[in-house]
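Problem 3 from the worked examples.
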Amino acid sequence: MPRARFEDLSADVQAFVSVSAPHVLVRDVRLIDGTGAPARDGMSVEIVDGRIVRVGPTEDVGVVAGAEVVEGEGHTLMPGLVMLHEHLFYPSGMARYNTNEHSFPPLYLAGGVTTMRTGGSVDTYTDLRVRQHIEEGRIPGPHMDVTGPYLEGANGFVRAMPQLTTPEQARAHVDFWMDQGVTSFKAYNLIDRVTLRAAIEAAHARGAKVTGHLCSITYREAADLGIDNLEHGFFAATDWVSGKEPDVCPRGASASYLSLDLSSPAFTDVVDHLVEKGVAITSTLTVVERRAPGREPPPQGAREAMLPQFEDRVMAGLERAERAGSQGGALLATYMAMEKAFYDAGGRLVVGTDPTGAGDVVPGYANQRALQLLVEMGLTVEQAVEVATRNGAVYLGRDSEIGTVEEGKRADLVLLRGDPTTDVGAFRNTVLVFKDGVGFDSARLFDSVKGWVGVR
């Protein structure tokens, strides 16, 4: 993937750039390098033509002739986020989703996302054109891995989704959308095993991976079919629903989680099977956390990003959920414990935000929140950053280029004010986002789309 040089960016995109020099020194930062290693103080990173050419202690790096210097004292530098459950659509009510092609790309970049996978698409031609325009430098946004239209069975709740009920349909669907330029696929609730197997085999034959938000198919069954990834942690797993019938989406999944002993073979055998099969799990705690009472509301910036009518609806919905007093708190704790158990068992945990649900998950802001939730789940800050950077890069097969702060890699970096290892609130303090070595002003990007989320 060619790097986007400053001079290749449109005037509209250049307006968001604060650091445009081809030679840059980010000096004297606290470095979280994405490998999971402890953070290091007093580090400097040198960038030349969009690549990291030196990483070392500030005193060793010294003065670098000809470099534009970004002073990093009191700041933390980490890799650009690689987020694997994102969308360009947003809920507008009544199972309808509006494509937000203008607001979402800059929001993602503002929040530190330099590479993203769309975890499902309802407007795939638009998603592909957005990716094209980002790569051409016409609009600001992260590099994109675009999924094709959902691999869904008959009578799904979203009318915009295909209805695939035979292997022949699945193969034709995969081949058609691969020809259009998509790079992955996502299976959904009602697909059956025979059809999904055909889709997975067709995708793998074309070099694409398949993830899934499943219900009719259990996690164990999906792993045996060859699926690469499963979404929403274990939130969508139906492996423990009593009386589950083959290829039927059952009720009662939430109750099955609450009654499940996470130390029992019923759970650990499924985890071990997923690890053995190399299936990654995507954490999307941002989209489920506010089902629990007492959670912090969306930040003010996220609320200001919404169309006012959408903000009113979203906040009213959150107030109703808070008053309802459901089992949400216990469920959220269980979801976190399940993901942590998978991580501890050696599973590849990746992360995304899923800006759907009740509309309270706003790109950029939610990506910052996702890191905080990984820490709340029990990961160290360094481990959380690794999940949100290197793990995603490994899954996408791009870890030789992105995901860690190492010499030779693309200069996709995030500069934060403060130190998240002592205050996870610092994940909210994005100052600069370097994409291919070009430094974008986070606040300017966030401010550019106020009032747009929901319709643009």
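Problem 4, a separate protein:
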Amino acid sequence: MPDLDPTSRRALLRRGLAGAACATTAGCAALQGRDDASPAEPSPGQTPSVTTTPGNAESRIQTHRTGDLALTVRRADGTPVTDATVSVTMREHAFRFGTGVEARYLVEESSPGDPYRERLAGLFNTGVVEHRNKWRPWENESERELAIRASEWLLERGLDLRGHAAIWQRFDQPVVPEDVVEKVRSDDDDRAAYVSRRTGDHVSEILGHYAGDVASWDVLNEQIHAHHLTDVIDPDASHLRAPEVVQWFERARQADPEASLYLNDYDVLAGEYPDYRDDYAELVRFLQERGAPIDGLGFQAHHDGYEEARSPDGILDTLDRFADLGVAITVTEYDTVGDGWTDERAADHLRTFLRTVFSHPAVEGFVMWGFWDGVHWAERAPLFREDWSAKPALDVYRSLVFEEWWTDETGTTDADGRYRTTAFLGKHDVTVETGGRSRSVRASVTDPVSTTELAVEGPAESP
């Protein structure tokens, strides 16, 4: 296994720490249509029920992840084409199914045709450079070059790019530049001003570099757990109400007006940590009160031990709570590591967890923190072992993402030249065949409420 730079390693997260889909509704809980028979949260010490599908998940998925597509086929003279065969085949999900990406392995240790590259491009539509877009690596020329090359590789293959992470204040990970760490630990009178300038300038620089290319950015990572920098800049403020965080988000918006700006943290969706959930909500409300341009929340989903698996209703309750704050949600850094996990348990958990989060209207994406043991921080990636043999979770992932939630429909036009179907939100190829000729067009179904109308001129008839 190659040497890896530290990433946001869930098994290490508690060590050494010093320190908008539902917004316009009456509340997400009312939207869900829960089955009261869904399992309750386990009591302490009880084995969680992670294999029970939440009630009405399928109906929620149909409501929030599909839309109606109506096709009208007419000849050049405007007359309808009847009994034409219409096929609708999905090309790409609108929902972001992503993975963390090890930049050095991608651009320097793999080559065209390598399983890492092939699986990455074939299984996901979103990529996250795991380590080298963090602050200290970014200021190292060779590390920055790796980050840029990996990002370009992803973009060239049509994957969306998430940025991770502009500011992360861990001192026991190599993510904060050494001069900033030294200044924080000093007694210098100018240390607050120095750290404020360096952090703000970095946010502007890295978001400005990727402006227009990155779909969403983790502007601030793990503020609940590590806040050395804000403690220096805003010594009289709680780390949950530090004014400097508002400035970071404002700098981020100025640097890239189009990217969705995120907080990202752990112990919120996985495991039973109600105090951390309360802290996260307080931080979000503070930023909103101050007018910070926060668009979304990242919920890290490292499950460090089988006991951190939660019931579907528990997951939905947490998603509801934060969606009601008017922000989008992305599940980030998903994996199952630590004691109690077997390959079979991990596969069952992925099935239930992914179905649950996909069914929630506020969730925009689901990101694994790597998919192959060979470059996974704990050698416990969800889908592939180091020898590239498949884990049971691979079949689960493929069967959901590319079969159950994949559009592949065929029918015929009626007397008015009309054909209607339901399609999962995303991009589709639509082919009309009649009289031995065919014509194909591209359709994007993006609205789960309104019908997507598509007019197609029928293929020219054979002479």
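Solution to problem 4. The longest strand covers residues 328-337. Residues 10-41+91-404 form a domain with the TIM Barrel fold (CATH 3.20.20.80).
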